[in-house]
Design a protein that fits this description.
Layout (H helix, E strand, L loop, with lengths): L3 E2 L6 H8 L9 H17 L3 E7 L16 E8 L3 H11 L3 H29 L38 H7 L2 H4 L2 E2 L5 E2 L3 E8 L7 H4 L20
Antiparallel strand pairs: 1-2, 2-3, 3-6, 4-5
């Protein structure tokens, strides 16, 4: 288990999606004027890093999850650091609310991309799984599409946020510069902790293939049709 640096693209489309502009929809003139310079600023401020470790599937209850019929359980933690959210707070303090909002969106897009990239790193490192690639890419590079479970985080569905402490006890959070608050939230805020199931029986990954294929039925943000049988 080691800390790895993660190279991010922070695409414009991802930032717009966080801001609430779906693909094909133009942002408001005020956002459009600020968008590109602020994305470029954000790219210079993010320091994306992550760490992960593999656990035997039968140890899932130790972190508050029920064991699934998979080959491996992987836990991970990523962050993009505090500089970007500090810049957003500074803009807000100066009364530049729109700029602060865009920088916050950049941070959210960046940390999601960091988690996706660490997911790809994890899958490529797990040589016990027969990986295949599909025609497509993830942020401009070929992405594996094996049997991978949804990337889920404490606080999702039935996984209590209080189980953050078990993840942090097993991951080098101090080396990443991430700490937990008394309410089990992370600082810096633009950080994600997660678990992934890997193996022949695992369900398709939300992190690599998107919400429409996610099997996390209780999720309140679910966009895939719910099964009726």
């Amino acid at each position: 288990m080691s800390v790895v640096d993660l190279r991010l693209a922070l695409p414009r489309s991802a930032v717009l999606q966080v801001l609430g502009y779906p693909l094909g929809y133009a942002p408001s003139p005020g956002v459009e004027r600020l968008l590109d310079p602020l994305i470029e600023e954000a790219r210079g401020l993010v320091r994306a890093r992550g760490a992960w470790r593999s656990l035997p599937v039968e140890r899932a209850p130790e972190i508050g999850l029920e064991p699934l019929p998979a080959d491996e359980l992987v836990i991970g933690l990523v962050t993009v650091g505090a500089a970007l959210e500090e810049a957003a707070a500074d803009r807000l303090a100066r009364g530049e609310a729109t700029a602060a909002l865009v920088l916050e969106a950049c941070g959210s897009a960046a940390v999601e991309e960091a988690a996706d990239r660490l997911g790809v790193t994890i899958v490529r490192a797990c040589d016990t799984i027969n990986l295949v690639c599909y025609e497509g890419d993830l942020y401009g590079e070929p992405a594996p599409a094996p049997h991978i479970g949804c990337r889920v985080s404490p606080g999702y569905a039935r996984w209590p946020i209080t189980r953050q402490s078990e993840l942090f006890a097993r991951l080098p959070h101090a080396a990443l510069g991430v700490r937990l608050t008394e309410s089990f939230l992370m600082l810096p805020r633009k950080s994600i902790s997660f678990a992934m199931w890997l193996g022949a029986e695992a369900q398709p990954a939300a992190a690599l293939s998107g919400c429409p294929r996610c099997e996390l039925e209780p999720c309140g943000f679910r966009r895939a049709p719910r099964r009726t049988s």
